[in-house]
Each structure stands twice: as structure tokens, then as C-alpha cells.
Amino acid sequence: MNISAASKAAGLPVKTVRYYADIGLVEATSRTEAGYRTYDEASVRKLAFIRRSRQFGFSIEECRELLGLYEDRDRSSSEVKRIAAKRLTEIEAKQRELQSLHDELAHLVKACRGDTRPDCPIIDYLG
Amino acid sequence: MNISAASKAAGLPVKTVRYYADIGLVEATSRTEAGYRTYDEASVRKLAFIRRSRQFGFSIEECRELLGLYEDRDRSSSEVKRIAAKRLTEIEAKQRELQSLHDELAHLVKACRGDTRPDCPIIDYLG
DNA sequence: CCGGACCTTCCAGTTGCGGTAAGGTCTAGC
DNA sequence: GCTAGACCTTACCGCAACTGGAAGGTCCGG
After folding, report:
1. Which residue, counting CA atoms, is nearest to the C1' of nucleotide C5?
2. What is the pLDDT of residues B4-21, one digit of tens each?
3. Nearest of B71, B51, B60, B86 to residue A120 by alpha carbon
């Protein structure tokens, strides 16, 4: 499979697949004589694994760890759970942050008349 | 006021104050003969305005617009409201995204025993 | 007059790619 | 056999919004 076939199969842009190879996350299975990257099914599975991990917001380095665990038949699920739980607390922290931003901003937007006059509670709050 | 006094008064790192000057967001009020930036109260107020705007997640370019409106005695509050409402919908979109990520990930983390065995619903889901 | 705490500019690095250029390769059709 | 165009390669720039660090100038207390 050349890189464009692999990228389609994994659901990632070609550029991203090449980038992942460059940083040693998922290397090409081999190269043709002309230097073209080739990918097999196993590599495509790894790429798709990374894609799904990234959708959860795991960083590239976390994806690297997760991929290592994915490939490790002797893994402890506690390792996986630790990484996922960490991400979960990050998400929850972000949710709390967004919630308070949302409440404040929604309040201000609601209080602003939004007409041609300059009076504005949003500006008042920021200034 | 030199830059460190201004940065303390505005609640921003010196580096950031310098950066804002570089990009023409809030320039120093003047320079000493030696080339040191000096800030007056009005500039510090602008810096603090930017700091609070940034806390709401407004981009630098949005902050530039908001600062322009802050400074404009003839502004229409509708302009301010438009920018804030846009940010609000972004926040809401992000909240929905995080909510679904949270629900999925929380479910998986809960289902993972987190012991020394390799069986793991999180890995199963990603793989 | 000296040490240290300021200040200056400029350059590099961060994250995770996307865009684009310059050039090699492969393949279908004539 | 040749050519057009669709691939592929590496390499470098750019993004957002800074942060850190190097090299060098300035200012102030003792």
C-alpha cells in the first residue's frame, strides 16, 4: 500500500501520515526501490489507532505511550487507565473553565442591548 | 513606569507586554533616552483590558477589535455584542465537544479494571 | 567603581500539522 | 518510445501566542 492508500484506509491526511513517520510514531513498513513509503495492514491499524486517540485529545506523546501499550501483549490495564484518567481530569478541568467563562459571558451578552449607543456592560466589565 | 512596573500593574508577564508592543497591540507610551519603554496609566489600563479579554478566550485580533471599541467613544454596543456573541457560540461548541468526549471517556475509564492484566476496554475501543 | 538587577534586540522552540516548491517516479495512452 | 499528469520524495516556511535564552547596554546602591 502506498502512502495515499494507507492514509485513506486510516482516515488521515497524507501529510499527517508522513509527519507521524518523521517523528517516529508510526513508521512506514518499508520503502520501494524508488524510496516510496509502503504500509501494511498492521501499520494502517496503528495509524487509525492514533487517529482515534487524537480525537480524544491525547497529545502525540500520550498517543506514543498508548500505542506502545496497544502493541504490548503484557501490558497492565492500569497503565492505560492512568493515562485515560489523566486526560479525563484535564477534560473536566477544561469543562469547569468553559462553564464559568460561558456563564459570565452569556450574562454580559444578555445584558448588552446591542444597539447604536456606546453603553456596553461587556466593555465595562473588561475595562 | 518602566516595563516591569507596568507588567505588574497590568498583571501580565514582561515578555507578554513586550510582545503586545511588538505586534502593535499596546505600544509603550514612550521611550527613555536609553531606549527603555515607559508606560502611563492609560497604557496599563489597556494592557489589563487585554488580559481580561484574553481570559475570555478572545484571540489577539479580537482583542485588537475590542480595544478599538473600548477606545472609541462613538462605538455601537452592537459591535461589541457581535464579537462577544461569536465567542460565546465558540465556547458552546467546545462545551458540546468536550461533553461528548467526557461521556465516552468516562464510560471507558469506568469499565477498565485497571489491574495488572492486559484486558482493557479503552484499548479495545481505540484499536 | 563594581556587582547585580534591570533593560534592549534577536533568535529559537513550543504543538501538530498545512502549504508550497523543486524535483524524482510511475503509468496510461498515443 | 514518448509524454502528460498524477503520484511520490525532501525541505522549508508559517500558524497562535507566547516563553526562554543569549548577547549586550544601563542604572543604582554600597
Report:
1. B4
2. 999 999 999 999 999 999
3. B71
